[in-house]
């Protein structure tokens, strides 16, 4: 047993003793009687190649840090498995007006140090997030929040500068975690401590090595821990991660096993390999500085030829799923807009598109891609795309690669007609797949795509508070993007973990944003 597990066991034992002492004088029919064996603690072991960089939710938000933060802290709202809309966690929230969002906190919420969790902590947490504005953090997402007021200890009111239907989804992110205002500095990050009111409390932390979590028994919310504690250990390589899970030294392995090792574990047996849809998507964006890409007939013809299923199989061995919209399945308002618009790959239909626009074939297109940013399958992917388009007889493809810093500069400068791109959202809402491509300040604004119809729909869906009407607007916007084809979505990634045969509820632990909720795991 490692030193960290000993500490975790001790922390769980102390927590149990505290509960027993607090209940002193009250008979407990469930307590062990003299001569009975003390129930064995359910302590789980997880391994990953990722390193936790920040325990503080106001800091950076890499996947490993999100996993720890999501389990240590409580948010006002949360999203549960198979339920795409937010539900209460620390509070029940509603719009009182288009620019007033009121959250009523549950009673008797506390932090592990015994401090009460009140609306003052909520206000402090958001004010601190905005004040720190950590580079690489999520503070910019809350630009529509003008202020947070606290009319009483159990009520927090978000006052908005303009209607923002995204706010309930933003409040489920780790950036919206509630921290103890008596324990956190207002003007600096807390480096090696964490005090939240989530399903777990921090029992130990060694940066770059291990995190020990123990069950927080006073958590009040929908994610109460079904185990007594978890240790998360960082290992140096995929091979080490493989050995940990294959030999039973860890209960669950995540983030770091490539397709080859995952296939090896699938065929070997003795473990569960569990997949769920991830929020990561891959697409190709047209650069509107190019005269060729500016022509909608060319863009639509490319979209008509692409065979996503063949590309997913050839380049990734079906470890990814074909994607027919910029919004992947699982998000409110998602529709397979490209499937609706283009049906099946068809070079005859694509040829008619080009012929009707008086475009000579083959159309010469320069495709940019990068070997470093998008993983080991990037080269096979772009080669398959080239093969498909040239096999149609309609296109002549020139591939150009660059390492990531130079690639970013080249795409912005218009060096390619079309370029490989990826996207993973910051918050669990369809808007975060639409704004990057449509808004003038979006992540892909430099490709020069502008559409009055798309911009109008984006503004409407952001201000629409009726969920069904908003989903309809989101669906319409995906339809506009499919018809105008400024980007062509190709595939959606998977969140994949490997677990021991006896570990239960594994799939419910997988969040589409690639981190894990640990509270439902148990033997």
UniProtKB/TrEMBL annotation:
The lineage of its organism: Bacteria, Bacillati, Actinomycetota, Actinomycetes, Propionibacteriales. Keywords: Signal, Transport. Coiled coil: none annotated. InterPro entries: Peptide/Ni-bd, SBP_5, SBP_5_dom. Residues 87-442 form the Solute-binding protein family domain. Residues 1-25 form the signal peptide. This is Peptide/nickel transport system substrate-binding protein. SUPFAM superfamilies: Periplasmic binding protein-like II (SSF53850). Its main location: other. Belongs to the bacterial solute-binding protein 5 family. It is found in: Cell envelope.
């Amino acid at each position: 047993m490692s030193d960290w597990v000993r500490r975790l066991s001790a922390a769980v034992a102390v927590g149990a003793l505290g509960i027993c002492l607090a209940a002193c004088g009250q008979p407990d029919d469930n307590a062990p009687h003299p001569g009975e064996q003390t129930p064995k603690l359910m302590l789980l072991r997880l391994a990953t190649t990722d390193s936790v960089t920040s325990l503080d939710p106001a800091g950076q938000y890499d996947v490993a840090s999100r996993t720890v933060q999501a389990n240590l802290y409580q948010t006002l709202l949360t999203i549960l498995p198979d339920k795409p809309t937010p539900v209460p966690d620390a509070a029940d929230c509603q719009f009182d007006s288009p620019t007033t969002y009121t959250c009523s906190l549950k009673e008797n919420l506390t932090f592990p140090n015994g401090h009460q969790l009140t609306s003052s902590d909520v206000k402090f947490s958001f004010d601190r997030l905005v004040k720190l504005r950590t580079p690489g953090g999520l503070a910019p997402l809350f630009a529509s929040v003008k202020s947070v007021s606290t009319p009483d200890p159990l009520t927090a009111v978000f006052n908005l500068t303009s209607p923002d239907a995204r706010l309930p989804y933003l409040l489920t992110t780790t950036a919206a975690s509630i921290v103890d205002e008596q324990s956190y500095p207002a003007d600096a990050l807390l480096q090696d401590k964490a005090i939240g009111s989530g399903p777990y409390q921090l029992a130990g932390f060694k940066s770059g090595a291990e995190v020990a979590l123990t069950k927080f028994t006073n958590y009040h919310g929908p994610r109460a821990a079904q185990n007594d504690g978890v240790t998360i250990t960082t290992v140096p390589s995929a091979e080490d991660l493989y050995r940990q899970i294959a030999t039973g030294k860890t209960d669950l392995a995540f983030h770091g096993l490539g397709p080859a090792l995952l296939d090896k574990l699938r065929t070997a047996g003795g473990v569960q390999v569990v997949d769920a849809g991830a929020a990561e998507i891959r697409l190709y964006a047209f650069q509107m500085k190019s005269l060729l890409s500016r022509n909608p007939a060319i863009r639509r013809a490319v979209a008509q030829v692409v065979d996503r299923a063949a590309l997913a199989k050839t380049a990734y061995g079906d470890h990814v799923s074909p994607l027919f919209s910029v919004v992947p399945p699982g998000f409110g308002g998602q529709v397979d807009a490209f499937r609706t618009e283009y049906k099946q790959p068809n070079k005859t239909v694509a040829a008619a598109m080009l012929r009707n626009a008086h475009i000579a074939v083959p159309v010469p297109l320069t495709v940019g891609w990068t070997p470093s940013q998008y993983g080991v399958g990037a080269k096979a992917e772009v080669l398959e795309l080239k093969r498909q388009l040239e096999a149609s007889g309609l296109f002549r493809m020139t591939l150009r690669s660059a390492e990531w810093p130079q690639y970013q500069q080249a795409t912005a400068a218009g060096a390619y007609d079309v370029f490989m791109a990826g996207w993973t959202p910051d918050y669990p809402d369809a808007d975060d797949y639409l704004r990057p491509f449509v808004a003038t300040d979006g992540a892909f604004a430099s490709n020069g795509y502008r559409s009055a119809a798309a911009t109008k729909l984006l503004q409407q869906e952001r201000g629409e508070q009726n969920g069904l009407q908003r989903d309809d607007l989101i669906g319409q916007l995906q339809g506009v993007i499919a018809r105008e084809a400024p980007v062509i979505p190709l595939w959606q990634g998977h969140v994949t973990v490997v677990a021991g045969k006896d570990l239960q509820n594994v799939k419910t632990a997988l969040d589409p944003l690639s981190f894990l909720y640990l509270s439902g795991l148990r033997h």
